[in-house]
Write a structure and sequence with these properties.
The protein contains 22 helices and ten strands. With 593 residues, it is of the alpha/beta class. Strands 6-7-8-3-9-10 form a six-stranded mixed β-sheet, with helices on both faces.
Length: 593
């Protein structure tokens, strides 16, 4: 599977299609959102009230004709702004509630899709890019879905309400003011493409930043020992500078559109003032009418500015939507199987299985045929790149063979549901994965999270882990840090074995489970593995041949082909590939000791 094209959504979906899809996340909260829109409409309708008060105040109040009856105007002013304040506060709260709910829903949807994506997807993606999409891009998406829509509705209605008052006051002058709308629209359209392009670049740069951060944190020991600080600083500075460059180009495009729009508005205002003065000299308007008109025109500048400003977050949001929907549109793991296997006996069969990684020069596996009986321990050995781990990865369907079939108890793995298949498997590898949680939570992980305390203790005892667990500050309730950073390698391996023991799956995959341990830790882990392997079909991948001498069968893989099979003694007697590997390792270990 190739890496997803981050520009795919932009070629398949227009801005209108993207926005409609965004509004789909608003749909569950449409009643609350509609209430917020109603509040915005009410706030917009109050806008003409202030310029409307100017006319009677100037014509009748200051004109001296009816000052006594004008005492209601100060109260009306307070009332207008009090009403607007209440409506604005309520509307802001409602829309923030909807926005944060959408943000939560989109993040949940993205994470739920991400953890169901196939292994090949992760092989072609950096963790930083994925983190950036879920942590940062989605913020811009919700801004487009709610904040931008808020501005569009509120300020558009405000503009309509003020224009209605202007038409009522003086339709001739209003027609002059309307001339700025097509000019403003042209400016916004010209800058939109630039803003969208820069927003895409900024998202990529943010993904690069999180990628460098993640690598530098995970590899901090290597960085320190090998003096990589300067190199990592340069990498981070390059990504950081790229992000700054994209942000500044966005700022230029966004900032230029506003003064240009305002310039058009100022020109229209100057023309209006000139015509109004001409009308005043011909007694076609009063002072109050003119001030009311100019006040309404000046009040138009703020919503027009907001509408011009909204283009930048809108384009950022649509660019982020492309990124978010690219992830949401990724194809989940192939789970077309419909058969459910309660508990397998553990008979595994490989029938003429071949597999090639994308863009690889040769197959990783070629026409592999192998039968493993229930309860049998089979070791896979061979030089690096021989296909051992690839063969093991086909069993949980992390990858799918291009040809041939793999059977469990006579059932093709492709016919089983993923949940049913993986419920019958347990995996312990050299790269132990633990979570920043308690010891107990790491043992009783996933489908076993409701296991009893007694079962957890039993698994820990069987894994030879209870001794060091009892010495920890809170025992089973001790937090072990990110990926078990507070534990030794042997302790981490034994927790992984305890996890597999608690699952009690009939098929076990051991992938280099002891290769990175010292002799003392290896003995403890091997003792735990001996318990774990009892009465289970076990596939052992090992580079250290001394650990698999007692395997019931050893399969030698080379260049993706099965070259030899037999017991340890049989293969040594054959004096082939296995015997040569064994002699080399034996000589190396003797020299090291």
């Amino acid at each position: 599977m190739t890496a997803p094209d981050t520009g795919r959504a932009s070629t398949l979906q227009t801005s209108a299609q993207l926005y409609r899809r965004l509004l789909g996340y608003v749909a569950p909260y449409r009643a609350v959102f509609a209430l917020g829109l109603l509040g915005m409409a009410l706030a917009a309708l109050t806008e003409p009230l202030f310029p409307a008060l100017m006319k009677p105040m100037l014509n009748d109040g200051f004109g001296g004709r009816d000052r006594a009856s004008m005492t209601w105007i100060p109260l009306a002013l307070v009332g207008i702004f009090l009403l607007r304040g209440i409506i604005t506060f309520t509307t802001s709260y409602i829309l923030a509630w909807v926005s944060n709910r959408i943000l939560m829903d989109m993040r949940d949807a993205m994470f739920a899709r991400m953890i169901r994506l196939p292994t090949a997807f992760y092989n072609n993606q950096s963790s930083g890019t994925l983190i950036s999409r879920i942590a940062f891009d989605v913020n811009n998406v919700t801004s487009a879905a709610t904040t931008v829509l808020t501005v569009l509705v509120r300020d558009s209605l405000t503009v309509v309400a003020l224009f209605a008052w202007l038409l009522y006051e003086n339709w001739r002058l209003t027609l002059v003011a309307l001339a700025i709308i097509p000019l403003s629209a042209l400016v916004i359209r010209l800058f939109s493409k630039r803003l969208r392009s820069m927003s895409r670049g900024a998202q990529r740069a943010m993904g690069d930043i999180t990628h460098v951060l993640g690598e530098s944190i995970d590899a901090h020991k290597v960085v320190k020992v090998y003096g990589g600080e300067q190199y990592e600083n340069a990498r981070f500075h390059q990504a950081n500078a790229a992000l700054r460059g994209y942000n500044m180009r966005q700022t230029i495009a966004a900032a230029a559109s506003v003064p240009i729009t305002q310039l058009f508005a100022a020109i229209a205002l100057a023309v209006v003032v000139a015509i109004a003065l001409l009308q005043s000299s011909n007694d076609q308007t009063t002072v109050g009418g003119f001030v009311s008109f100019i006040t309404a025109m000046l009040m138009l500048l703020a919503p027009l500015k907001h509408l011009a400003d909204v283009n930048a977050p809108l384009q950022r949001g649509l660019a982020a939507a492309e990124s978010v929907f690219t992830l949401l549109d990724e194809q989940e793991e192939d789970d077309r199987g419909s058969r459910v296997l309660a508990r397998a006996r553990g008979a595994l069969s490989f029938r003429d299985v071949s597999f090639t990684y994308p863009n690889a020069e040769r197959p990783a596996l070629s026409r592999i045929t192998l039968d493993i009986a229930p309860g049998e321990t089979v070791a896979l050995v061979g030089s690096s790149g021989g296909g051992k781990t690839t063969l093991a990865n086909l069993i949980p369907r992390f990858f799918h063979p291009q040809s041939g079939n793999i059977l469990l108890d006579g059932i093709d793995l492709a016919d089983l549901t993923l949940a049913s298949l993986r419920e019958n498997l347990a995996l312990v590898s050299q790269d132990v994965v633990l979570f920043n949680d308690t010891v107990a939570a790491n043992i009783a992980y996933g489908s076993r999270q409701n296991a009893t305390r007694e079962d957890i203790v039993g698994a820990a005892v069987a894994a030879h882990a209870m001794g060091f667990i009892q010495q920890m500050p809170q025992g089973l309730d001790t937090l072990i840090g990110e990926n078990g950073v507070r534990l030794s390698g042997g302790q981490r391996q034994r927790l992984a074995i305890a996890r597999a023991l608690l699952k009690n799956a009939p098929v076990l995959i051991l992938d280099e489970a002891t290769s990175a341990l010292d002799s003392e830790s290896e003995r403890a882990v091997q003792a735990a593995l001996d318990v774990l392997m009892q009465d289970r079909t076990t596939l052992v991948i090992a580079h250290r041949l001394s650990t698999i001498e007692n395997a019931q069968r050893i399969v030698v893989l080379d260049q993706g082909h099965v070259m030899e099979t037999g017991t340890h003694a049989e293969l040594l007697a054959r004096d082939g590939i296995y015997a040569n590997l064994y002699r080399i390792q034996y000589a190396t270990e003797r020299a090291a000791s």
